[in-house]
Design brief:
Number of helices: 13
Number of domains: 2
Radius of gyration: 22 Å
Strand content: 25-35%
Oligomer: single chain
Largest sheet: 4 strands, mixed
Helix content: 25-40%
Distance between the termini: 19 Å
Structural class: alpha+beta
Number of strands: 27
CATH superfamily of the largest domain: Enolpyruvate transferase domain
CATH class of the largest domain: Alpha Beta
Strand order of the largest sheet: 25-26-1-27
CATH topology of the largest domain: UDP-n-acetylglucosamine1-carboxyvinyl-transferase, Chain
Length: 427
């Protein structure tokens, strides 16, 4: 078991580099199932979710080899396996992205219902609806999705749900449609940069996808796809986490390899709170210009404020004098971090899909437990500004989405370290 210890009160100063986007890397790795030949995927972060994806791909007959740095070579060595391992799939939601490629290339698939962060109900009905529209026969029983097809065929598909577009559903259907016969049109497609990155990778393999980055995708199916050499985008959520950390600690930090055009909503929110934000094409500098002001934040699909940064901005709002409201429109139950922030002295009241925050003068270090990936980052940020020592348990969640974050924060001056603890043995 591991924990992270933080002594708060140190402004973050200097520069930190953003790594490859987890939410782009995972679907792109699964997309290699579609191709014949060898692919080289560059800028892939070293995360447990990536490791689990590689293990799933190997179970499915796809060889994956780290070449050094952030490069992974991928090539199918056995085109027959169509069933993914339950113990691996249950660890992350993105594993459902194996479904579309397996159906399109191997005509059948058996995938356990995916796992991931445990914040509320996140159905995959839109994935299945889209794949069935393409001609898949799908049966869900005993926790497994079993699907088969004689030939996927293009269709006109609407992928809108009660909370907006589906990111992974769009990815799954788009991958399947790349090898379907005829034309597929996806309406209400997710516009997230990671979905656009997947589409560009598919086109690099020989797919014919138009409307990339818009709400309507047009996909003309092709007979086959080939391997490609491709560099994934940098992680906008990681960049946003560092931006918020710099502002709330009263620091002055430059986030290198960030793409400001993908973080407009975050930049606007930080400026509204009083932070100074400047940027160029591939970096963002954040300084805390004055005491933070309260603001209301509502999460929306891209280009709105990201749900994956909701927990992090909430910590900053805890220090703003006055009342703020955070409303979650993507995952209404994504508030498991609230109880731990209250343990540290925050004044937060949850009402349905909203959290009402009354600012406090300071947070206090305390033992807390991370419930999911972004909650882990939220608690680290809280520890950076809290008075005293914060001890964060269950940090395995953190390693799913942030590569060596404690080392990189330490490089900005944070007093943070990771400790390995021994379990207590029963006698």
């Amino acid at each position: 078991m591991e924990k992270i210890l933080i002594e708060g009160g140190v402004p973050l100063k200097g520069s930190v580099e953003v790594f490859g986007a987890k939410n782009a890397a995972l679907p792109i790795l699964f997309a290699t199932i579609l191709a014949g030949g060898r692919s080289i995927i560059r800028n892939v972060p070293r995360l447990t979710d990536v490791t689990n994806t590689v293990l799933i791909l190997r179970e499915l007959g796809v060889g994956c080899e780290r070449l050094g740095g952030g490069e992974i070579a991928v090539e199918t060595f056995d085109p027959d396996p169509c069933a993914a391992d339950h113990d691996l799939v249950r660890k992350m939601r993105a594993s459902v992205c194996a479904l579309g490629p397996l159906l399109a290339r191997r005509r059948r698939a058996k995938i356990p219902m995916p796992g991931g962060c445990p914040f509320g109900h996140r159905p995959i009905d839109l994935h299945l609806k889209g794949l069935e529209a393409l001609g898949a026969r799908i049966h869900v029983e005993h926790g497994f999705i079993e699907a088969e097809t004689d030939q996927l065929k293009g269709a006109h598909i609407l992928l809108s749900g009660p909370n907006g577009s589906t990111v992974l559903g769009t990815a799954n259907v788009m991958m399947a449609a790349a090898l379907a016969k005829g034309m597929t049109v996806i309406e209400a497609a997710a516009c997230e940069p990671e979905v656009a990155d997947l589409a560009r990778f598919l086109n690099a393999m020989g797919a014919r996808i138009q409307g990339i980055g818009t709400r309507t995708l047009e996909i003309e199916g092709v007979e086959e796809l080939r391997g490609a050499d491709y560099r994934i985008i940098n992680d906008r959520i990681e960049a946003g986490t560092f931006m918020i950390a710099a502002a709330m600690t009263g620091g002055d930090a430059t986030i290198e390899n960030a793409q400001p055009e993908l973080l407009t909503a975050v930049i606007d929110t930080l400026r509204s709170m009083g932070a100074e934000v400047t940027s160029e094409a591939n970096w963002i500098r954040v300084r805390r210009g004055q005491s933070p002001r309260p603001v209301d934040v509502t999460t929306y699909p891209y280009p709105g404020f990201p749900t994956d940064l909701q927990a992090q901005i909430m910590v900053y709002l805890c220090l703003a004098e006055g009342r703020s409201v955070v409303t979650e429109r993507v995952y209404p139950d994504r508030f498991m971090h609230v109880a731990e922030l209250v343990r540290m002295g925050a004044n937060i009241r949850k009402e349905g899909a909203a959290a009402i925050i009354t600012g406090v003068r300071e947070l206090s270090g305390a033992p807390v437990m991370a419930s999911d990936l972004r909650a882990s980052a939220c608690l680290i940020l809280a520890g950076l500004v809290a008075k005293g020592i914060t001890e964060i348990g269950d940090v395995f969640h953190l390693d799913r989405g942030y590569e060596r974050i404690e080392e990189r924060l330490a490089g900005l001056g944070a007093h943070i370290r990771r400790e390995v603890t021994q379990p207590i043995l029963a006698v």
